[in-house]
Design a protein that fits this description.
The chain has ten helices and eight strands. It has 243 residues and is an alpha/beta fold. Strand 5 (127-131), helix 7 (139-151) and strand 6 (156-158) form a beta-alpha-beta unit. Helix 4 packs parallel to helix 6 (109-123), helix 6 (109-123) crosses helix 7 and helix 8 (169-182) packs parallel to helix 9.
Length: 243
Amino acid sequence: MYNIKNSKELASLICYTNLNNMITEDEMKEFLEKAKEMEFNSVVVSPTYVPLAKEILADTNIKVGSVVGFPLGFEDTEIKVCEAKELVKKDVDEIEVVMNLSYLKDEKYELLENEIRQLKEVAGDKILKVIIETKALEDYEKANAAKVAENSGADFVKTSTGFMTPNHIYENVNDINIIQKYAPKIKIEIYGGINEYKLANQVLTAGADLIASNEGYEIVKRYKELRENTQVKPKPITLTKKD
């Protein structure tokens, strides 16, 4: 099993996500303050809130990520590239792009690789994650999607946009096994179906590098409370006077 030593380490493996398209600025500020409290690996917010996130998290090591071609991925490559350039102007740390699943299902791998390479060129030294929406794919398509992402220079494969029914833990583990087998060099981020520490621990043990979750704060808080409640407290020492 994956050995999480403390709540800080757990938080460092979670990408805390909020892509609610109707969130207010005050609600986003509250979300970002929670992220700051727990010191997550990163936050993922809409392009609208990247500047606010960069401002609030400026004195932390938390990376700020945002999305391109979200959530369907069927925009023209030129549009995705323009979106990525705008995110770079906002000094985003990570870019997440949704793969064009029509191209994938039609086996137009050259078009997919060309798109991802252009996006990586725009991203430069920033992290590029390719979302492949595994819930919509057969196993062989997951394998091909992962290979395309790896061949094109992406840093991560991410398993979901969060807009489909969350995967069961066994589906997540199966996805990890497929990606590791067919694209062994690329990192893996699991999104969907992870809402408690035990599930997080299972996918990390299976080989995931990171977990993305809208419930990151609750996962870490409950884990922290669990650790505190199960720690053995030392018995008080009673001093007695000598005769």
